[in-house]
Amino acid sequence: MGDYKYPGWRTYIIYHGTTMKNALRIQREGFRCSYDGMLGPGVYRSRDKEKASHYPKYVNGQHLAIIIVRVRVAKVKRIDYQGHPLQKTLYQHGYDTAWVPAN
């Protein structure tokens, strides 16, 4: 199924920073949603490879990795300030992706 069958869907290359140990697990088992975060439960990734390279922040000497992923998104919500009314509930309102501008 190509993207052409889904009007409004866009495809992006995105990055996920993690430890090498977790990268190997993700390769075997796939991504798992976090229980919480700035935008609530979900899988956190970035279109900015440099930003992804700074995660995770605390690694205790572990080797780091960046996973490159091709994703299709349909309904994207811009969350551009802390306390946005949909910040933690965008999925319940029909959005599949959040976009947080830099800074």
Automatic annotation (TrEMBL):
GO terms for cellular component: cytoplasm. Residues 13-84 form the PARP catalytic domain. It holds the Pfam family PARP. SUPFAM superfamilies: ADP-ribosylation. One of its GO terms (molecular function) is NAD+ poly-ADP-ribosyltransferase activity. Belongs to the ARTD/PARP family. PANTHER family: GIG2-LIKE PROTEIN DRED-RELATED (PTHR36542). This is PARP catalytic domain-containing protein. The lineage of its organism: Eukaryota, Metazoa, Chordata, Craniata, Vertebrata.
